[in-house]
Amino acid sequence: MGGSLSPEQVEQFDEQGYLLVKDVLDPETDLDPIIAEYDGVLDALADELFEAGEIESKYEDLPFGKRLSQIYVDSGKVHSQYFDFSLPQKGVRHDTPFWTGPAVFSALTNDKLLDVAESIIGPEIYSNPVQHVRIKPPEAIVPKDPETGRALLGATQAHQDNGVVNEEADRTQMLTMWFSLLDAPVEAGCLRVEPRSHRQGLLPHCPAGTNKNTKGGLQIPEEYRDEDAMTPVPTKRGDVLLLTARTIHDSLPNVSDDIRWSFDLRYNPIGQPTGRDSFPGFVARSKKSPESELHDPEIWTQLWTETRARLAESPDDRPFNRWGADDFSCA
Ligand SMILES: O=C(O)CCC(=O)C(=O)O
Ligand SMILES: [Fe+2]
Q1: Of 67, 116, 300, 304, which shows the fewest CB atoms inside 10 Å?
Q2: C-alpha–C-alpha distance, residues 164 and 43, integer Å
Q3: Model's pTM, two decimal places?
Q4: Does 217 have pLDDT greater than 90?
Q5: 213 — phi, psi (to 5°)?
Q6: CB 71 within 8 A of CB 289
Q7: Of 261, 263, 264, 276, which is best to mutate to test ligand 1, by the most ligand atoms within 8 angstroms of its C-beta?
């Protein structure tokens, strides 16, 4: 379990643009503490919404996934920002919620993940702040956007992660590490990748609402990609999927009856631009200067709290990506 990649795995990643690494994380010791932490976050959300009269019950007897889904249905809203360990791309307020608890921090700094990252980007590892938790309820019940009729938190459209950051990061060796907290089979809406698509450079991404993209989110138009080549990558708890910043990927809709729950983290060599420099990253591992590594989850929370205050006072008006899309993040 865990550990560095073999030379064959590194070669496969270089050739295919993605790699599924089985059993990197231990479901019980690495993932269950994160799930336990989010139980408390959901408790707090239920309390707030109940007190505000937005839900009829706190649904305390339901298991996490069913409870979260029921709360979204009952309130008619998705509350993804409440759980996320990042901030929205615009409209940050002093009270914008986010969650940067110690269990989340321990995932970002997990040695097994960093060993894998080191095999790809070397031993000077920066935790890039383009990162999300995605907890997607079954698409059939998730509240819809009243204008488009699309699920507010549904399938992700085809994109390259390089396409959803600024030009500054075009030469950054940004590695995406995606893992599911629960098994993510095809029906739960696992990721799909287009193998070898990373070799063709950065492709155009169309913002939602343009005639090339009626679906929402940034999307690479179909003529630039091979829909038939899209390969689903179902994951089990503990598996980690690696993507290059140029690998075309999307996700399937969640047609199961439970949530699809994932973390997507990004790492790059220290010193390279992150593509979102108004957000705080940190040194996760440095062989050269171990004293620069961040090991304190409270300082990490403080970085995000300060960032929130700064952005609430003076919003950063620079677009988050070169395509001028509005506020939907598919990164
Ligand atoms: O989890 C998803 O649906 C999309 C994830 C994604 O695009 C990413 O991790 O870069
Ligand atoms: Fe992505």
Answers
A1: 304
A2: 32
A3: 0.95
A4: no
A5: -145, 95
A6: no
A7: 264
- Quick check: 330 and 159 in contact, CB under 8 A? yes
Burial class (CB in 10 A: 0-12, 13-18, 19+), 154: buried
- Ligand 2 centre and the CA of 85: distance in Å? 16
Q: Residue type at 31? A: L
The DSSP secondary structure of 195-211, one letter per residue, reads: TTGGGG-PPP-BPTTBT
CA distance 223 to 256: 30
Q: What is the pLDDT of residue 1?
A: 43
Question: What's residue 198's pLDDT?
Answer: 98
Residues within 6 Å of ligand 1 by CB:
134, 156, 161, 176, 178, 191, 249, 251, 262, 264, 330-331
pLDDT in tens, 177-211: 999 999 999 999 999 999 999 999 999 998 876 66
- Which ligand neighbours the alpha carbon of 242 most closely? 1
- Tell me the average pLDDT of the chain: 93
Residue 263 CA, ligand 2 centroid: distance in Å: 11
Structural domains for the chain: 7-313 (2.60.120.620)
**Amino acid occupying residue 111:** D
Q: Please check the confidence at residue 212 and state whether its pLDDT lies above 80.
A: no
The amino acid at 116: V
Q: What integer pLDDT is reported at residue 266 of this predicted model?
A: 98
Query: Parallel, antiparallel, or unpaired for β 231-233 and 191-193?
Result: antiparallel
